Amino acid sequence: xxxxxxxxxxxxxxxxxxxxxxxxxxxxxxxxxxxxxxxxxxxxxxxxxxxxxxxxxxxxxxxxxxxxxxxxxxxxxxxxxxxxxxxxxxxxxxxxxxxxxxxxxxxxxxxxxxxxxxxxxxxxxxxxxxxxxxxxxxxxxxxxxxxxxxxxxxxxxxxxxxxxxxxxxxxxxxxxxxxxxxxxxxxxxxxxxxxxxxxxxxxxxxxxxxxxxxxxxxxxxxxxxxxxxxxxxxxxxxxxxxxxxxxxxxxxxxxxxxxxxxxxxxxxxxxxxxxxxxxxxxxxxxxxxxxxxxxxxxxxxxxxxxxxxxxxxxxxxxxxxxxxxxxxxxxxxxxxxxxxxxxxxxxxxxxxxxxxxxxxxxxxxxxxxxxxxxxxxxxxxxxxxxxxxxxxxxxxxxxxxxxxxxxxxxxxxxxxxxxxxxxxxxxxxxxxxxxxxxxxxxxxxxxxxxxxxxxxxxxxxxxxxxxxxxxxxxxxxxxxxxxxxxxxxxxxxxxxxxxxxxxxxxxxxxxxxxxxxxxxxxxxxxxxxxxxxxxxxxxxx
Length: 541
Hints:
The protein has 18 helices and twelve strands.
């Protein structure tokens, strides 16, 4: 603003006779502006900014002194318009100082004192000491100073109240997030017990499959609601992050479709997948968060479609900022009104009480999905017309990834588990992977327990001993490496063989597994022969 004022004044007046002082004033102002810029940079770069405040205040004082000086030669011109211009210049500078101080008295006093001094000096500097109106001018300047002090006090109180309210809101958000995290941690144990207990009952001869399925479904629903609340609290507190790793995009999208195909079939809906062959295999991004968004979109589409079909289509788009994946989920449900679309991504909003009663849920899924898409550099939008179904469009950057370096799995160590019906713990955050590993291991005659994250695995390992643990490397929160390090520090499963399971097996991954205390490593997708060899040794030997 100051630079703009100087440019306007010089451009309009400096060339006129009697206004040559503007050029010297501009040069002095440029020096003061550079000094203030240097002070600001030092302040921002200093390890302890408080040590540079004195220099900043000195440059503020210099700036105000140089800028306000121009009022004196303007006043000395002697015309009413010139006197008014000088007064306006001082008044505008005082208002600027009031806004820039932001409630800090020291900063305000430093910036406004030279301008008030100039205001009282003006009548005498212009030779108007004998003017009969000068005393009234000085009285007006005094009253202005009084009003200015009152306005500053009011603004200071308002800003302090706003800061206190903001700090209180941030503290409340942090407390809420901590509470949700604590509740989540405490509830995971009984929920996992429900799921594992239902699974154990289902395998018992003579058990009621309907009852065990009811327990398992209820536990899964509770777990989904809990995960939504925890994710939303992390996003709200600004603690949600996304990772950048190389992953198999085709597998992530295909697995999500396979996960929901049975659900759609049970409801009499056809689930179609188009464009999968055009997808690149290896891209860079966050596969876990992409899978979370896909599951939310497919779950909602199937939930709100009574008959017809749900179609997931994928295409690649070249944009100036890079390559993007355009993923669309289209259903033949009742559609949405414009008002419903406006509320669609609002947290806890389920488009009416009837939606919550009929379909359940927290109303957080789409809000979380949109925020995750933004964190990954993309967007999630919706289009619909009443009675014509809904279309959800996910656009995400998919930069080229690197395929994992081939590792000779025949050289990996084995744990050679002995005995009949060994008890093995499978730790993986994806349900399909857990079910697949269970089927393979039970075919080998093993008993299987599962955990969907490292925290649940550590809880299970505290309760009983296992013959082996299959540990996914990449999981939300605590990863497989850290979970293994914690296991090695425990007493019950401190010596239990741990086999890493990973989709990207690089040489450095293997070294990291060995340093963490793991006994072996197998690559996803898991081949039964490799799994058997890693756990029980080569059957031919």
